[in-house]
Amino acid sequence: FSIHGTVHIVINNQIGFTTSTKSDSRSTYYPTDVAKMVNAPILHVNGDDPEAVVFVANLALEYRLRFRKDIVIDLVCYRRRGHNEADEPSLTQPNMYQAITSKLTTRELYGNKLVEQQVLSQQAAEAAIESYKQKMAEGKPLLKILDVNSIPANFQVDWSIYKNRHWMDVTDTTFKQQTFSHLAQQLLTLPKGFLVHDRLSKVLKARQQMINEERPIDWGFAENMAYATLLSEGFDVRLTGQDSGRGTFSHRHAVYHDQSTDNTCWTWKPLSHLQIDKPVREGKSIGNITITDSLLSEEAVLAFEYGYATSDPEVLNIWEAQFGDFANGAQVVIDQFISSGEQKWGRLSGLVLFLPHGYEGMGAEHSSARLERYLQLCAQHNMQICIPSTPAQIYHLLRRQMIRHYRKPLITFTPKSLLRHPAVVSSLDELCHGSFQPVLDDPFYQNEPIEVKQDITRVILCSGKVYYDLLEVCQENDDLRKHIVLVRIEQLYPFPKQQMNAILDEYPNMNDLVWCQEEPLNQGAWDSIKHRFRSYEVQHNMMCVSRPSSAAAAVGSFKAHKKEQQTLVNEALGLMKQENVTRSIT
Q1: Of 192, 241, 309, 493, which one is least surrounded by beta carbons within 10 A?
Q2: Domain map of the chain by residue range?
């Protein structure tokens, strides 16, 4: 996270209103005293002395360039009009504003000084003021405009190819299987003398079997291969989070730690040592990867990653929450920057958020990434909200994020227990030759003729982990399988209406259309997407099956959780009296 020093400028305008005394707002004499804990120099300067301000600014910049360390400027000044012209600051700061009212302005003080020192004549000073006013009246620039052509090419980034794009633009995320296997093998190669943990050794052996097509590919390996293939195509990858190297649930293993006592700090990042015979993407050398286990400050880290993502469109920039629930500590960054930065400032960003999400009986603070909050922020195609449910889906989703000339934040709700679920696997062919599908039809019926699909009377739409809970019951009951299909919506925004309609039209005798979610009724996706189904409500029995509305995200008892989950699944499948069903979309 180092940027080798920052010049911090505090505009100390003393506009505290009811916190106008130091004791109301801080325990230190200066507001900049907090910088003492990092031994940063602090320069206090009078805002009424422009020459001193310029001197201090130059000194701070030279210090930062020479020592590559932080330095702080405390610009002590004031606001003559309070917060704005309509404000009356003397109501709470009478003595201060009596002094300000009787005081000459900064311009007047400095102008008088220059005249006294005979640097300017009185007439020249007045002419400069009139020239300034004239420029303002004519709408002319007051400062010299920076010539973009004077900026060195290595500091310029071309974002033009990412503007005015559509999320449905066709993107080829396939990858040559021979090169895929070559890269995959390198991820399993260890340096001489490196001793891996017994559990990691088993993971590496399993991944070798995946390369050999002796077993299907799991989530962790598919994710690593998404990074490897993108690196081989010249994209950089940056992954930060509180457990990003290992993964919160020990699924990723992108960083290996030597277990011998002689090398206590020896780590190996195989993704940093990839080699290819020739560039996969013409004109691009192999990319760089940064994997950092960050501190427990969601707001600080996510804010840094947002800034990083706005600086370079060719970096797959990922921030992973330890649990999706913890992202609420960074809500200001999500609201003020990620969701609205493009509309407010025209700044594009391809930042990716990984938010582990799913109801597994771990209580209110470890169950929900608050899907409803992100969906509420969605408009004008400002973000992408995806819940991939297979290794192939996360693989192609990450590749699509970089290969497609479309840079929008990608909020990804990732699994927890599904990371090791025996059904959550994909084939090598699906990774090398597939693509990300915004909607997944039921694989049991996907390739069946229309005659067979005519028997389907109930279509259950869902996203994420609950699909596998529903699938488990369906596989135990052949009668259910004859008239029920499970359709997964893997991208909730921008909503893939065209793809969803195409799949639903395959079931002409559908009577019941069910949206099933694990979250309580007042949470989850239902409130944000229910209007998408209005055209089906007239002819079909449309309903939402969920947990009852709740103030907390989840119950604290594992026993109560299991009972709720069983009830929810049975209601969705029509196996019991439907108590937690909402039948009206409006």
Answers
A1: 192
A2: 7-150, 177-433, 442-582
CATH annotation of 442-582: 3.40.50.11610
Q: Look up residue 94 and give its two tokens.
A: 């009478």
What does the alpha-carbon distance between residue 505 and residue 507 come to, in Å, rounded to a whole number?
5
Q: What whole-number distance in Å separates Cα of residue 286 and Cα of residue 279?
A: 7
Q: Is the pLDDT of residue 478 over 80?
A: yes
Two structure tokens written together for 65: 């360039």
The answer for 437, left when phi > 0, alpha when psi is -120 to 50, beta otherwise, is beta
DSSP letter for 95, please: H
Q: pLDDT tens across 136-150, in order?
A: 999 998 888 877 777
Tokens in use for 523? 């949470």
Q: Which CATH number does the domain 177-433 belong to among 3.30.420.40, 3.10.20.30, 3.40.50.12470, 2.40.50.100?
A: 3.40.50.12470
**Distance between CA atoms of 25 and 14, rounded to whole angstroms?**
11
Superfamily of domain 7-150, CATH level 4: Thiamin diphosphate (ThDP)-binding fold, Pyr/PP domains (3.40.50.970)
pLDDT at 88 over 90: no
pLDDT of residue 121: 94
Q: How many angstroms separate the CA atoms of 10 and 13, rounded? A: 9
| Total-model pTM | 0.90
Same fold, 177-433 and 442-582: yes
pLDDT at 578 over 90: no
pLDDT at 18: 60
Looking at residue 552, its amino acid is: A
Contact 363, 556 (CB under 8 A): yes
For the chain, give the percent of residues with pLDDT over 90. Answer: 79
CA gap 173, 390 in Å, rounded: 16
What local confidence, expressed as pLDDT, does residue 260 receive? 86
Tokens 């700090």 correspond to what residue? 265
**CA 290/CA 229 separation, integer angstroms:** 15
The H or E element spanning position 512 is: strand 512-520
Token pair, residue 546, equals 């969920």
SS3 annotation, 444-460: CCCCCCHHHHCCCCEEE
Average pLDDT of span 257-261? 86
- Cβ contact 247:327 at 8 Å: no
CB proximity list for 569: less than 8 A, separation 6 or greater = 466, 469, 470, 473, 516
**Quick check: 389 and 418 in contact, CB under 8 A?**
yes
Distance from C-alpha of 200 to C-alpha of 206, rounded to nearest angstrom: 10
Sheet holding 315-320, edge to edge: 289-293, 236-241, 315-320, 352-356, 410-414, 384-386, 491-493
Query: What is the three-class DSSP state of 14?
Result: coil
